[in-house]
Amino acid sequence: MNLFRLKNLQAQIKSPVLIKKKENLIYLTGRSFLNGYLLVKPINTDKKQMNTDVVFLGDGLEKIDGVRSDFLKNVGKYISKKEILEVFGEFTYAEVKYIKFKNPGLKIKISIKHDPVDFQRQIKSADEISKVRKSMQIVEKVFGLVKREIIKLGMTEIRLAQFIQKSGLKFGAEDVSFPAIVASGANAAVPHHVPSAKLLKQGESIILDFGFKYQNYCSDFTRTVFIKTVPKRLEIAYNQVERAYNESMNYISKRSLPIYRPSKSLINQATTNYRILAGDVYQKAVDVLAEKHLEKYFIHSLGHGTGLEIHELPNLSPKSKDILQNGMVFSIEPGVYIPKLGGVRIEDLAYLEKGECKKFINVPIDLKSNIL
User: Fold this and answer.
1) Contact partners, residue 154, CB within 8 Å, separation at least 6
2) Does the 3-120 domain belong in CATH 3.40.350.10?
3) Mean of the pLDDT values across residues 239-267?
4) Model's pTM, two decimal places?
5) Helical H runs in the chain?
6) Domain spans of the chain?
7) Which of 16, 140, 174, 362 is deepest in the core (most CB within 10 A)?
């Protein structure tokens, strides 16, 4: 159990919460579970109250050292009559119904907002940053192999995607962050294209989007490559996407960021010198693409947080009010998708340290380096 993280959570909540999301269980306990829930109550200031503040509720087969274990059906005995149990969006109707059936009179609040641990996980520790870096270093090694593999005669999208996934495991990844995307020609105009039997051809854009897990932490990476030649319209799009990528990174670094100073009792209470809204960074990328009238072909957010999940907070999306802070890890991934022609996307994970937007790896993004 990570007592520092647990006490930070207890200091934030005002009522008992039931944590179900597996990534949040990993974050708090340091362990992966097949099935289980963690009941966490606010710090107990009532010495007369005998209820346990933290209880693992599972199937009886898995336990956490130093933490009381029980079955989900018994959750009610740890909640006083004056307390309301809060559960979150990942709970199913059947789970809530079961808890109510087994615990008549238990008050339950179903919250559609994020689990409080989701917000806590936004600020990464040095150890978490190190694990993401290792995951990105695996990506870098795989991309080096891919550039040689991709030009082989008869190479298809699906065959290359399979090669990517196998190569990551050979370099020490425990799993993929998500199924690898290889999209070429007109398929590259579809951001989440599923690799097909289409042959990779000269003169088409080829989007490669993949990532791996290292000790539960994800990486995410995209490059757009060309075999020998580049169509003029895609060359213009590529150069502008590259500018949008660079200027988004620079826009963040030029600001004076809140400085994260972890407390022993409370999660991040940052001193705010300048508020950098994630939505403003997104808009910066849009403004750059608009210079070449390409903004209408940018059809997704600029980025997302990454850590134990491939998509987590913060969101760099239109009008996002998420505030970027030191210790956050997120993607920067501008893209342009032109129907029937192809697409261009460049993506890296970055993190904020002392007000500077830093990358984990330095794989070239310029067009010349990505013509094979």
Assistant:
1) 199
2) yes
3) 73
4) 0.91
5) 3-12, 22-29, 93-102, 116-120, 126-149, 157-170, 232-253, 278-290
6) 3-120, 126-370
7) 16
